[in-house]
Design a protein that fits this description.
mainly alpha; 532 residues; 17 helices; 0% strand; 82% helix
């Protein structure tokens, strides 16, 4: 009789081996989250430096709003290319690491076609988009220039996806830091020299091309070989993710462009001249972008979880290891909830203080919109985490349909609320309408994806964990609001810090946050194992 196990037999040590492998993956995931979170924190700080300094370097809120509008349009395309391509290449590489070089070569060929098509389309349509969609023909040249960024991002994302799939998180984080530095300098230096929004847009484009060239030099372009998907099979995997990411980024950012368009139309209906209406739209876009710079912080900090959990879930599902997949889901959702509520609560409690601390006084008009938008972004971030998990398990279509549902709620709701608010009261009601419409869309997507995740993978949130976290969040909001002082920047900052401290204390008291959590998600107790 053969000593080899028959099909269906499981060696006695297999459960312990699988458990040890899962624990090792979780620890490496924690280290990966720490590395990429550090890089993302640097990115946020660099971005915040731009948001803090650029309104002061540019001539007016209208000029800042012009810059914000151009970046809003291109960011939707950029983020689609970054997230969709990274996930596609990461999934392929994580499942077939032996063919990583061949996969990278094939991905770059596909992305080159995508880059040429999308950047060319944006450049060719820039005049029409500026004049007929955004109602300001002056934006046309800037949209044409920033199409360079679309080209660079399409290729750069494939290179980062290859690093992510091989779990080379340190190298991925290094590129994030390098690009953040170049991008910040490229935007701020031209503005400081008096070149204006046009110079900042050109500087951003130059930074994007520079990081692409650096990544090509360091990561390489792969090589031909066995194991790479055909262009058709790559497209079959990539296109659903690109469609999904398109919808996700519309949900994330389209509200600024909707606000600009419908606020401008409201001003025209109120009898304002074309120039005056366009200036109002630009000014509100500038105010609203300032509010977004705070509201996006929770989402931006939690994004590293998607980079780490996607290849883990993808690999577990491909190996038919449902127990590991459920573990990753539970850990990712709980960790995300803890971080998001902790970051959002002080902003909800003291939006006036946040705006006062970072921006000129006139930008305080967006404080009430910031409170609503912060809540909307918590729903959005949780939706993205859950949808990324669904995509990693092979259910990209489900993620895309849920994102579509969110967009179909967000767009008409935002347009209707802004139109009903009109252009009066300094545009404050219009900005609140844009934020509330976004909240309705993101809440719809969050509820739908949570239900789907539970049904498909059998794991989601713990009810007790949610209750404890919300109690801690409520305490943080109350503390921030109580300590906030209407005229002091120092007290505004202190109030928000106090709110964060109270949040952590309540989590510790209720034992929602334990030493084991810190060891698992934050502390890097051992060097991550090199990929096999």
């Amino acid at each position: 009789m053969s000593d080899e196990p028959r099909d269906g037999d499981t060696p006695a040590a297999a459960p312990e081996t699988r458990a040890a492998e899962r624990e090792g993956e979780v620890r490496r995931a924690g280290a990966g989250v720490a590395l990429i979170t550090g890089a993302k924190l640097y990115f946020i700080l660099a971005g915040f430096a731009v948001q803090f300094l650029l309104p002061r370097l540019l001539a007016s809120a209208e000029e800042y709003g012009t810059y914000a509008t151009v970046l809003n349009v291109v960011s939707i395309l950029n983020n689609v290319l970054i997230a969709g391509t990274i996930q596609t290449v990461s999934k392929l590489v994580s499942e077939r690491e032996h063919a990583a070089a061949a996969i990278l070569r094939r991905a770059l060929l596909f992305q080159l076609v995508v880059a040429l098509c999308l950047s060319g389309l944006l450049a060719a349509s820039s005049t029409w988009v500026a004049r007929d969609i955004l109602l300001d023909a002056r934006l046309g040249p800037m949209l044409a220039i920033v199409s360079i960024v679309v080209f660079a991002y399409a290729l750069y994302a494939a290179l980062i996806g290859a690093l992510n799939g091989r779990r080379l998180f340190a190298r991925q984080a290094g590129f994030d830091v390098g690009f953040s530095t170049m991008r910040t300098a490229g935007i701020l230096v031209p503005a400081a020299l008096g070149i204006g929004a046009l110079g900042s847009v050109a500087g951003f484009s130059a930074a994007a091309m520079a990081i692409l060239l650096a990544a090509l030099a360091i990561v390489g372009v792969g090589r031909s070989g066995e194991g790479a998907p055909t262009l058709r099979s790559y497209a079959k995997l990539a296109l659903p993710l690109i469609v999904y990411q398109s919808l996700v980024n519309v949900m994330l950012q389209i509200d600024l462009s909707v606000l600009r368009r419908y606020a401008t139309l409201a001003a025209l209906d109120a009898g304002e001249s074309t120039t005056a209406a366009a200036e109002l739209g630009a000014r509100l876009a500038g105010f609203y972008r300032a509010a977004q710079s705070f509201a996006f912080i929770p989402y931006q900090l939690i994004i590293p979880v998607t980079f780490v959990v996607f290849p883990l879930v993808s690999k577990a599902v491909a190996s038919d290891d449902r127990e590991s997949a459920k573990t990753y889901v539970r850990d990712a959702m709980r960790f995300s909830l803890l971080v998001l509520i902790g970051l959002a609560a002080p902003l909800v409690g003291g939006p006036e203080g946040a705006m006062r601390f970072a921006f000129p006084a006139e930008y305080g008009a967006a404080a009430s919109a910031l409170r609503i938008l912060t809540c909307a972004q918590v729903f959005f971030a949780l939706f993205v985490i859950a949808a990324t998990i669904l995509s990693g398990s092979g259910r990209v279509l489900a993620s895309a349909l849920i994102a579509l549902a969110g967009v179909l709620v967000l767009l008409p709701a935002s347009a209707l609320l802004i139109a009903r608010a009109g252009a009066g009261d300094g545009g404050v009601p219009a900005m609140e309408g844009a934020a509330l419409g976004t909240g309705l869309g993101t809440l719809t997507a969050f509820v739908a994806v949570t239900v789907t995740l539970q049904r498909k993978l059998g794991a989601s949130f713990s009810v007790l964990s949610v209750v404890r976290t919300l109690v801690a969040g409520a305490a943080s909001i109350a503390t921030t609001a109580l300590l906030l002082r209407p005229t002091s920047k120092v007290m505004s900052l202190a109030a928000m810090v106090a709110g964060g401290v109270v949040y952590l204390v309540v989590l510790l008291v209720t034992r929602e946050l334990t030493r084991a959590d810190l060891d698992r998600f934050v502390r890097r107790r051992r060097k991550p194992a090199s990929p096999a």
